Amino acid sequence: MFYTNGNAFQLLNLQTFILTKRYKYMGVLSFLFSSSLGRKLIMAVTGISLIAFLLVHCLINATVFFNDGGKTFNEAAEFMAHNWFIRTTEILLFVGLLLHIIQGIYLVFDNRKKRSAKYSGKAGNANSTWYSRSMGLLGSIVLIFLVLHLKHFWVVSRFEIPHGLNDENLFAEMVAVFENPIAVIVYVIGCFGLTYHLMHGFGSAFQTFGINHKSYTPFINSVGMAFSFVIPLIFAAIPVVMHLGLIK
Amino acid sequence: MKLDSKIPQGSISDKWTSYKSSVPLVNPANKRNLNIIVVGTGLAGASAAATLAEMGYQVSAFCFQDSPRRAHSIAAQGGINAAKNYQNDGDSVYRLFYDTIKGGDYRSREGNVHRLAEVSTNIIDQCVAQGVPFAREYGGTLSNRSFGGTQVQRTFYAAGQTGQQLLLGAYSALERQVGIGNVKMFARHEMIEVVTIEGKARGIIARNLETGQLERHFAHAVLLCTGGYGNVFYLSTNAMGSNVTAAWKAHRAGAVFGNPCFTQIHPTCIPVSGHYQSKLTLMSESLRNDGRIWVPKKQGDDRHPNDIPEEERDYYLERRYPAFGNLVPRDIASRAAKERCDAGHGVGPSKMAVYLDFKYNMMNKYGKEEASKKGIKNPSDQILLELGRDVIKGKYGNLFDMYKQITDENPYEVPMRIYPAVHYTMGGLWVDYELMTTVPGLYALGEANFSEHGANRLGASALMQGLADGYFVIPYTIGNYLSKEIHTKPISTDHEEFVKAENKAQARINHFLTINGKRSVESYHRELGLIMWNKCGMARNEKGLKEAISEIQALREDFYKNVKVPGSADEFNPELDKAGRVADFLELGELMCLDALHRNESCGGHFREEFQTEEGEALRDDEQYKCVFAWELKGENNWELHREELNYENIKIQQRSYK
Amino acid sequence: MGNSMKINLQVWRQKNAKTEGRFETYQVNASPDMSFLEMFDVLNEELIEDGKEPVAFDHDCREGICGMCSMVINGRPHGPKQAVTTCQLHMRSFNDGDTVVVEPWRANAFPVVKDLSVNRSAFDRIISSGGFVSVNTGNAVDANSILISKEVADTAFESAMCIGCGACVSACKNASAMLFVGAKVTQLSALPQGQPERESRVVAMVNQMDAEGFGACTNTGACAAECPKEIPLSVIATLNREYYKAKLNGK
């Protein structure tokens, strides 16, 4: 089925093929990969996990604002790097991230196939927000950023410490990376992408879980909006202030 | 031809019960070998198709719309009657029976109407079981409201969309059978010929409207559930596609047509706004529960309605009919509106409208109620109005929105302008007690038949009749015919009668396409409608009807010389579909005028100006016309009149009075 | 009334599903009190008089309830006004001299029949897969023996108002039918009558929805924003919930 032609989309069917055709033992959970609602559920579960991760990540990063030469930050980073629970969660998180990416790409391409003839008239934002319709694009921006980001810090923290004065000085690594203005710009753009990705993703996850009620949905949406602005803002502020030398 | 209505013997309340217990049955194994065609998927068609399929028959269902869910039953707004007596206000099967006969001005059959009243209660049960979300009280019980011509509250409703909810219930039952495989559904198919073999209906020729292909379909029995023919007037509350074609082809194949001139003109519709008008929109009768109808006392009064003081308003229905007031039956309310407008009291730009005003009840009924609930002492008019408005909004919000959308006027602030419009046809194919036409094996259900409403239908009774016929009548009565057909093997559609019928249909289609004249089908339809409305509408007279007949004949002749039907026969071609329908309307129109001309009396919706009381009420002639007029086609535009005498054994006929 | 307006129409013309379509430009004199479909009637009359082929479009009741009319007007199903169908859209919602682009519903699950007319039988098949209560005629108990609170009845009614027009699909960037399916599932799962088949229904309907080639929902909300009957987005949440519950119960 995925040999018929060579486009990228067909390759994505590989995942469907493996997970639904071969691994039948998944039984009750096979719908997660075979039905449109199952795929959505994966997006929502992994999305919410990533949101939880962002919160933790952001809290730790925010410790640089103590401006203590990275002391607190490095302690926290070391804890995160050596705690067995965190390390295990990290693996799950990576699996989740991967699923989020693969399902996301699948949905974008599969959904695109459902309307071969496009509209000529434009509704603009009359019925939906631009970012809710551009999750694929926003996700890709975040992904590009993420690759770079993982290379800058995760790979470094886990496998090598080139600028290391002592064993694990991730703070110093940050200072070094953000000396480069291009890196700072890329990080800020990444955070913009993240903001809009979250503005839709946060509330959307709850809707997918089936949580929609007139008394608490407005609250969830407000929290989502606040989260989408505050978290990426903190993230984006770090490279900027470091580049400007306000934090050393 | 002798018309036999086959009314069972026995007392009125036992007829249906004893019929059901003695009618021959078809055993389940044989049902599987019997095919039934159902044409039309409105309330009658969908309920019949679903129920017959549940029983085990092989059903093929046809509709011209793109989905069975779109049949025009969906547009019924107000409600459905049933003699449940849930309101403990003295309702009973007999009272519903009585109201319906009286409402129909003593021109319907006792036996049929009593059966209708009996099964009315089962309909509500069935619909609730299907998940139809009827309006409810806080305690969880069903809610009721009043409709015209009755003094009890027996109308069940789902906001202003009762027809929609009932149809979706029947549609879901139908789709369930489609899924199971007992019903084959043919959407975008129009029946254009009935096929009879040795005098019995054995199938139809249908046209696939998407491809233009003609198809032959065999069945042991054919059910026409194709609705009414109000669109003969061009402007009506019917859907654009509603047509008489199926019934007319049945008429041409030998089925006798009953009371064709009995047309219901609904009193509360949004008035015509311009020459381009394509249809009229109904404002539900339920609005008359809370709206008061008036015109200015002064002729040609051009003041804004809100500037006309109370004492200069003529609440003419309340004045003329104090017992029923604004809730008189439709024929009476319509005629009264026409009388006022003709007398120069009409309002609005066209002067062909009257006011339907909610302000009084908003303030004095609901406003005061709400104020007292909320404990507001001595509320100002403004507060009363605001409180009352919310209640009215809750009850009729969607209708008010629709009115505003169409007229660009806010009915919460300004009274609605309304005028009567063609709404329903009581006439239709003549059927006996078993709903069979004069062609054996050919049945007519719902609005397509003539039976239960006499010369005027009461509000909320059309839904009741459609579902009664489909859910609870035909499943029994068809057994009487089919039990004798169990040895009939399916007849090949290569049979010469099928070939002949198809050729006839094909020739007609080719003819339309080759006339190649100058005028559009629509223009003929519009012209026919105008003739019908002016001369065979709310008021009729001998001179007008005679003129109408010759005008229609001339128009028909011109149609076949000058009509332009674009496109071809082998594609989706709505103009061609319309041509066939209008051609049939051009024949039906003549028959309607002929019928009206022969009925030298006034009754219900049929008002002959020559026959009225001094007060302008309809004057019946029970000596001569206490009967059904049933017309048999004897050749092109040549009809023979048969009469079915109506006997009233359980109701004393009297001058209908709502005063 | 009487004051006329000129409308420049760009209308999608397509002979049938197998052929390519294109836009054609027409000019129509309309009156502000006309409905959008009456404006098309006027156009068609003129086309027929000129010996040209009229524009095919679906319409029937013209009072906003049958769900047959289906035009995407300037990129929006049923045009620019909230909570109205095309047949209830009046020309007073446009200005003299406006250019108006009119297209059919576009979704692979709704193939074009001709011009602006599409085939929506996929919706019928979804209902036929499970959008019902299995109760044969004659099986019902007395209507008032099932008590249903006003709130539940209102919730059921709110979602039962769906007219099956397909505007949700046409508005959705993914051509998803979730609002349509969600409305029916919400109605029947709210009511006591719908309980026995509650789980099998939702699974069957979602399977059919996927098989018909509708896209997956990405919660953009365009469907509810364009729904002429204002079916709320919460019906999709209900659908999700019902489906996951049924799946986790092994349905």
CATH architecture type of the largest domain in chain C: Orthogonal Bundle
Provide the CATH superfamily of the largest domain in chain B.
FAD/NAD(P)-binding domain
Class from secondary-structure proportions of chain C:
alpha+beta
Number of domains of chain C: 2
Radius of gyration of chain C: 20 Å
Q: Based on the structure given, which CATH architecture of the largest domain in chain B is correct?
A: 3-Layer(bba) Sandwich
Low-confidence stretches of chain C: none
Helix content of chain B: 25-40%
What is the quaternary state of this protein? heterotrimer
Protein described:
Chain A contains nine helices and no strands. By secondary structure, chain A is mainly alpha-helical. Chain A has one domain. In chain A, helix 3 packs across helix 5 (84-113) and helix 8 packs antiparallel against helix 9 (217-243). Chain B has three domains: 33-264 and 423-482, FAD/NAD(P)-binding domain; 266-422, Flavocytochrome C3, Chain A, domain 1 (Alpha-Beta Complex), CATH 3.90.700.10; 495-634, Methane Monooxygenase Hydroxylase, Chain G, domain 1, CATH 1.20.58.100. Chain B contains 17 helices and 22 strands. In chain B, the strands form six sheets. In chain B, strands 6-2-1-10-18 form a five-stranded parallel β-sheet, sandwiched between helices. In chain B, strands 12-16-15-13-14 form a five-stranded antiparallel β-sheet. A four-stranded antiparallel β-sheet of chain B has the order 17-11-21-22. The radius of gyration of chain B is 24 Å and the shape is globular. The model of chain B has no long low-confidence stretch (mean pLDDT 96). Chain C is an alpha+beta fold and 251 residues long. Chain C has eight helices and seven strands, in the order ββαβββββααααααα. Chain C has helices at 36-49, 121-130, 150-160, 167-171, 178-190, 198-211, 222-226, 234-248; strands at residues 5-13, 22-30, 72-73, 76-77, 99-103, 112-114, 117-118. In chain C, the strands form two sheets. Chain C has a five-stranded mixed β-sheet. A two-stranded antiparallel sheet of chain C has the order 6-7. Chain C is elongated and about 60 Å long. The model of chain C has no long low-confidence stretch (mean pLDDT 96). Chains in contact: A-C, B-C. The interface between B and C is large, with 86 and 80 residues.
Question: What is the structure about, briefly put?
Answer:
The complex is a heterotrimer of chains A (248), B (659) and C (251). With 248 residues, chain A is mainly alpha-helical.
